[in-house]
């Protein structure tokens, strides 16, 4: 199981990287927009500096910020050249027009992480177009089944048999995607994002994700347990009593 850090916060990234368990970082425009205003280039540069300091050579996904295919191509090529970080993957949103962009970038030797995938067919088509990684959004897949603002879209998709109930169960979506990748020998890796808690992280890997990208706020929950605290305190107090 590979754990990535899903953040653009420099303090959170540093605190995680120095502990050595993370094998990558994923960012997106919303995560960057939570940080103090600065230049995009300078901020990504600082993330790369932290990687070089603590875990040289780990994965970094950086997302394009446009829906125009020509701009996406230009941004992707610019990031690769500008940052010169060999393990950088460019996040490109999934979509019909985007498939051609993914194909072009992959053919040019650029690692693509196809992001915002919500179902199996999106993930398979992106992988077939050349994406090295497909990001399936666990929490948002689940939300898709209940989101009141999306009732019309959900009903339309179900009525035309584009989706069914299984498409809102993230465990089933990731499991089916992994099964198809393995059966058909598709070499792309599944990243699950949109984690909503430590339990999601465990379940995403059990469902077949190769990589789980996790917001740093969940790391303390992943590494602690109330019974651990109890037993460690008990051992220490027993030993102190014996010493005195
Ligand atoms: C990861 O690649 C995604 O950008 C991220 O996990 C999305 O998470 P969210 O649904 O919490 O925005």
UniProtKB/TrEMBL annotation:
Record's keyword annotation contains Nucleotide-binding: no
InterPro entries the record matches: Aldolase_TIM, TAL/FSA, Transaldolase_AS
Keyword Disulfide bond included in the entry's annotation: no
GO biological process: carbohydrate metabolic process
Protein name: Putative Transaldolase
This protein's UniProt keywords: Schiff base
């Amino acid at each position: 199981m590979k754990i990535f850090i899903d953040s653009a916060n420099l303090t959170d990234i540093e605190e995680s990287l120095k502990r050595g368990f993370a094998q990558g970082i994923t960012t997106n425009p919303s995560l960057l927009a939570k940080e103090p205003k600065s230049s995009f280039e300078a901020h990504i540069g600082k993330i790369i500096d932290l990687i070089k300091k603590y875990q040289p050579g780990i994965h970094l996904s950086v997302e394009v910020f446009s829906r125009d295919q020509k701009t996406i191509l230009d941004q992707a090529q610019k990031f690769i050249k500008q940052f010169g970080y060999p393990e950088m993957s460019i996040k490109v949103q999934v979509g019909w027009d985007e498939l051609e962009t993914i194909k072009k970038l992959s053919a040019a030797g650029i690692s693509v992480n196809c992001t915002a995938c919500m179902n199996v067919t999106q993930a398979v088509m992106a992988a077939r177009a050349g994406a090295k990684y497909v990001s399936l959004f666990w929490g948002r897949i689940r939300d898709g089944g209940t989101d009141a603002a999306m009732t019309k879209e959900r009903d339309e998709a179900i009525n035309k048999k584009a989706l069914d109930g299984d498409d809102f169960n993230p465990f089933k979506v990731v499991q089916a995607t992994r099964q198809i990748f393995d059966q058909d020998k598709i070499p792309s890796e599944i990243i699950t994002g949109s984690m909503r808690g430590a339990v999601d992280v465990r379940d995403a890997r059990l469902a077949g994700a190769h990589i789980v990208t996790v917001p740093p706020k969940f790391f303390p929950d992943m590494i602690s347990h109330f019974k651990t605290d109890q037993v460690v305190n008990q051992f220490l107090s027993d030993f102190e009593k014996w010493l005195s």
